[in-house]
## 1
Amino acid sequence: MQDEDGYMTLNFKTRKPGLPTVEPASSSLWRVMALVLLFLCIALVVGLVALGVMFATQQNCIQIVNKSLPGTPQQLTKLSSQDLRKQSKEKDDFRHKNITCAPNWRLYGDRCYGFFRQNLTWEESKQYCINRSATLLKIDSQSILGYIKSRTSLIRWVGLSRQNSNKVWKWEDGSVVSKNMFELSENARENMNCAYFHNGKIHPTFCQNKHYLMCERKAAMAKAGKQL
Ligand SMILES: *[C@@H]1O[C@H](CO)[C@@H](O)[C@H](O)[C@H]1NC(C)=O
Ligand SMILES: *[C@@H]1O[C@H](CO)[C@@H](O)[C@H](O)[C@H]1NC(C)=O
Ligand SMILES: *[C@@H]1O[C@H](CO)[C@@H](O)[C@H](O)[C@H]1NC(C)=O
Ligand SMILES: *[C@@H]1O[C@H](CO)[C@@H](O)[C@H](O)[C@H]1NC(C)=O
């Protein structure tokens, strides 16, 4: 039908010049039109195939980005590296929150507590903690006091000492013991310059005595998270 119409139109147009001997001219024109149509069809098919390929490629790219595979196509390298950077940042943030302690150390707050059954003098205990990148315990809040009390019922050295009977009690970090938490001096006799913890109380005693001990150190990940 279309062919017929096309033919008629062409025939009509070609008649304009005037002569009845239009047959060769119109057939050559038809051939040209057919070729043009053919080219249009081929172009259309090629275009469709190209579109299909592009679509398929994009699908693959999306999948690759989703899976964050290392081998990404060039046009998506930027996006994918941003993606990976974002992911690793999220991982870091997550890790900062996820604080853990080494085996045998207990996590409480942002700190790790180690309870050791080593019978040592106060100085040896101090060194024992230092050898483990830790310090003797500082009990400076009711919550830590409660925690330690619940964890151990044994006598254990803490990081509290004084230079002599005339000096104030100080924690290992140099801070003075708060008066309302413990009453030390009234029990402390001459030359009792080191303190141990027992059943929720701090007791002064001779530094050369041997007791078990406990150490504390910052939970590794909490440290990084706090400093950032
Ligand atoms: C990519 O992941 C998102 C969410 O994780 C999902 O909705 C989408 O369908 C995924 N796309 C492909 C192509 O897998
Ligand atoms: C912390 O990380 C460990 C493994 O790295 C995991 O088993 C644990 O569930 C994580 N805890 C939290 C609270 O995310
Ligand atoms: C610690 O050692 C001292 C002296 O060697 C000893 O008298 C004491 O019973 C020991 N304590 C413990 C808990 O083993
Ligand atoms: C601490 O480490 C030093 C050196 O490794 C060692 O000589 C010492 O005995 C250790 N002290 C304690 C109490 O573990």
Note: The radius of gyration is 43 Å.
## 2
Amino acid sequence: MRPCRRFEQALIVLAEGGEAPEAAAHLDQCEGCTRRLAEYRHLLGEGGIARVTQNAPAEWIARAAAIFPEARRAAVLRHSLSQVGARLRDTDTLQIAYEVDGVVLRVQYARLGTGWQITGRVPDLSWTVQHRGASVPLDPEGGFQIDVRETADTGFDLVLPSGRVAIPGVAEALGEPV
Ligand SMILES: [Zn+2]
């Protein structure tokens, strides 16, 4: 079900410039691990991490492992296409309501060239939004906007005090092929 976790150490090896052929092959078919590798590389490039690796590898491993949490998946409560019987490919805008820790998060998707503009508002300013491992800025009301170039890239994460919650890509959320 979750083959990715067994590549966790190998991704760190790759990030440090080592070789891990099996993990490297897995990257070709896994956007999530590709993103994690980029995050690990980013951590390594921040400076100081190399020293941490030498002096306290456990600390670095723990920090890297924090990037690899078991994200819970937000449940789709409803979406606007179900009311009109439309398919994703035939539509330019839609809304999906997700349930996140008992709160409804409404996310709007509008076509933007080949991709989508995703907008929403987190109900709690302690939440953060991450896309491809990078934090998405929130306005003072918690509003956020993510522009992506492909339908396959429409998934993002919420980081709550209670942990990480994955908002699936729009096609996955609708149960349609990308
Ligand atoms: Zn993976």
Note: The chain has two domains: 3-65, 72-174.
